[in-house]
Write a structure and sequence with these properties.
The complex is a heterodimer. By secondary structure, chain A is mainly alpha-helical. Chain A is built from eight helices and two strands; from the N terminus they run αββααααααα. By secondary structure, chain B is mainly alpha-helical. The chains are: A mainly alpha, B mainly alpha.
């Protein structure tokens, strides 16, 4: 439990952990912890991979290159087996999503109090702020803004590929003429298809958010409620979560590829 | 669940990371992987070809060895045959040489004997005549009795 004063209750502890550090007002609020962690992790991804890309050898690869190539080939195989079109964007997109989401999810395994406590200490000793007023949510994927940003990016690409490959007419026709091909039911088709289309990015982002948010919440609950017994239970939950973390990253990548291949498939 | 401007920031970050990955990360890595795969495939093909070549060469070597062995056997056979013919010929020649030498010896001996005989005959004739001369010196002259001496000489 964070050492933030005697009057603290379980609910305020949990509340404190689930509040983002914010800057700004209304819509123009920025969650600076989400932004900072996700961008730092994004740079960790691109710079460490860029290091390999810069001196990639076709001969015997080094250890780090072998590791990166393992991931790249895994993504490449997945993309090739699912997406049959030729696009220079899909594979790097899938790689970025997979590694970035994986890194962000991995933040969940850092003990829940560690980074917020550190931030509180820095706030207290560095800026003279009450540690209780310093908020720090370290797992960017437990922020809907993060997951929606990813899924909206994917959604825009879906629309783009649909229109690029089938044309505006083909895309529209898919929306109104699909399950029941009679002019009588075009209005019904349209409602159905638009809901299905919008459900894709919505479910994509909410699945990732839900899984990670729930995992984080349980870590916080364990930390906040059961004293010393939390240690073995933390371990058990972390071991289980170790499965969830790469699985959610993989699902997000896989569904992105599937949606984009559906979008660029001609009927 | 509060959507706010963080989303825009993350969207920009997302676009930037995907763009960077597409431009500077993905192509060199996948290029290296594919090039290495090509290299390995080529190497495997080359090794297979080498194996086949080796097999062919081995078969060829065996064939040549067999041929060489047969040739060697042939040559030895020929040499043996030739050796025996040479020995035969030489023996033949030796025999004939010996015969010739012997014959020559005989003829020489014969000639010598004949010559000796002749000489001897003449000497004996002279001796006989001398003896007869001495005997007859007392009673008759040599000329009247020479036919008897001649006869005597011829009988020798």
């Amino acid at each position: 439990m964070a050492d933030t004063g005697g009057e603290q209750t379980i609910s305020s502890y949990i509340q404190h952990h689930l509040t983002n550090a914010t800057v700004g007002e209304g819509f123009w609020t920025f969650h600076i912890d989400t932004l900072a962690w996700s961008i730092v992790l994004g740079f960790v991804f691109i710079l460490s991979f860029r290091a390999v890309a810069k001196k990639a050898t076709t001969g015997v690869p080094g250890k780090w290159q072998a590791c990166v190539e393992l991931i790249v080939e895994f993504v490449n195989d997945t993309v090739k087996s699912t997406y049959h079109g030729k696009s220079p964007l899909i594979a790097p997109l899938a790689l970025t999503i997979f590694v970035w989401v994986l890194l962000m999810n991995l933040m969940d395994l850092i003990p829940v109090d560690f980074l917020p406590w550190l931030a509180g200490q820095i706030g207290y000793y560095g800026f003279g702020v009450d540690p209780h007023d310093v908020y720090m949510k370290v797992v960017p994927t437990t922020d809907v803004n993060m997951t929606f940003a990813l899924s909206i990016g994917v959604f825009v690409l879906m629309i783009f590929y649909s229109i690029k490959i089938k044309g505006v007419g083909g895309f529209m026709k898919e929306l109104y003429a699909h399950p029941f091909n009679t002019p009588w039911l075009y209005w019904f088709n349209f409602i159905l298809e638009v809901v299905a289309l919008l459900a894709k990015p919505l479910s994509l982002s909410l699945r990732l958010f839900g899984n990670l948010y729930a995992g984080e919440l349980i870590f916080i609950l364990i930390a906040g409620t059961i004293g010393l017994w939390q240690l073995p239970i933390h371990f058990l939950w972390a071991a289980f979560h170790l499965l969830v973390i790469p699985l959610q990253a993989f699902i997000f990548m896989m569904l992105t590829i599937v949606y984009l291949s559906l979008a660029s498939e001609e009927h | 669940m509060n959507i706010n401007a963080t989303l825009l920031g993350e969207l920009i970050a997302f676009i930037f990371f995907v763009w960077f990955c597409m431009k500077f990360v993905w192509p060199p890595i996948i290029g290296a992987i594919e090039e290495r795969q090509q290299k390995i495939a080529d190497g495997l093909a080359a090794s297979e070809r080498g194996e086949k070549d080796l097999e062919l060469a081995q078969a060829k070597a065996t064939d040549q060895l067999k041929e060489a062995k047969a040739q060697a056997a042939d040559i030895i056979e020929q040499a043996k045959k030739r050796g025996s013919t040479i020995v035969d010929e030489e023996t033949q020649r030796g025999h004939s040489e010996r015969e010739k030498i012997i014959a020559q010896g005989y003829s020489e001996i014969e000639a010598e004997r004949n010559r000796t005989k002749e000489e001897l005959r003449q000497q004996v004739a002279a001796l006989a005549i001398a003896g007869a001369e001495k005997i007859l010196a007392r009673e008759i002259d040599a000329a009247a009795q020479s036919d008897i001496v001649e006869k005597l000489v011829a009988e020798l």
